[in-house]
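User: My collaborator sent over this chain with a note saying "see what the structure looks like." That's all I know about it. Can you take a look?
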Amino acid sequence: MDVGRSTEGRPIQLGLGYNAAQFTLLVVVNALVGGMLGQERTVLPLLGEQEFGLRAYTAGLSFILVFGLAKAATNYFAGTLSDRFGRKPVLVAGWVVAVPVPLLLIWAPSWSWVLAANVLLGVSQGLTWSTTVVMKIDLVGPARRGFAMGLNEAAGYGAVAVTALATGYLAEAYGLRPAPFLLGLAFAALGLGLSAVFVRETHGHARLEAATHVARADGRHDHLHDQLTNREVFLQTSFRERALSSASQGGLVNNLNDGLAWGLFPILFASAGLSVGRIGVLAALYPAVWGVGQLVTGALSDRWGRKWMIAGGMWLQAIALAMIANGDDFAVWAVAAVALGAGTALVYPTLLAAIGDVAHPAWRARAVGTYRLWRDGGFAVGALVAGVVADVLGVRAAVWTVAALTAASGLVVALRMYETHPGPR
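Assistant: Without extra context I'll predict from the sequence alone. Here is the result:
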């Protein structure tokens, strides 16, 4: 194990076992981050339609559009800020921004308040989720990166699922406001307290790994040295480097279909006569399988490699979306939601792990930020594509369109991406 010393004089050592306490705390913190997102999954599309009278799908999906744009931009800057100022200050700042979100949703007299809340939610998610990802990568070192990302994303999306389910039942029992959003207020207070008081800085772990970094034996990354400018990191991650750019487009399309699921699935299910409670079950089932599945898939990618898990996961998502577009009852949609969650579980932690495999520790946080810029930009693209197609051709046509895009994305990974982690080290 590699050992160093922090600026406070504490010994620094890479590895999950040595850093188990801080790693576990960060898992809890990211679950709270996911809960902030989950408070909207069931309720907000119905709120827009029933309380604010939004009939055009494009208008109804505007909250996802502004969320995606805010989160994508913040993701990019979160990596740069965490390299410059440290990880913990960025994490705490994200929680400060989160506190007003549930209050705005509870008190919103117009849809513009909801949009403002989702701008803040996007900024908060970009700062908090990006930073917990980077901090876990810092702590575990290279050997168990996929497992670490699986735990991180499982915690976040498991909490999305639980909160989506809980808010569905709360909305059915007590109305769409304010009860469902009181959960978000509790999550924000707890997340801010834990991050400010108990989370420790991990930037020293990244510096230690950079100092002991060993290049790949095949010379694949010889051109990716440790001294890259922000512009160079952006270009390599977005376009030039085959694995990094393949992961970036895969992440964008993955969240494009998640934006569709978030914004249009509750409306599709409601049009079939499902109750708010049953819509909440379906809204929770997909991220629940996604979340729990990542406990397995992240670790498997450390043993089997990344490429074909990503491609296969994208194709499974495409099949699930086709099932949803073609279905018309709860049972079919439940099976499809499970398949969609399983496909996403194969993809989500594996994409992050692939970025960590390729990016040099000196600029890894910036690479993660760039990847997450593209990935969460998928929310905005999904809101636009799904909204326009749904307005012109109907909701089911929008689902079919996104299914085709997801299948094509898997093909890009299959043809362009190389294996970034060929088996255990």
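A starting point for your reply to your collaborator: The chain has a mean pLDDT of 87.
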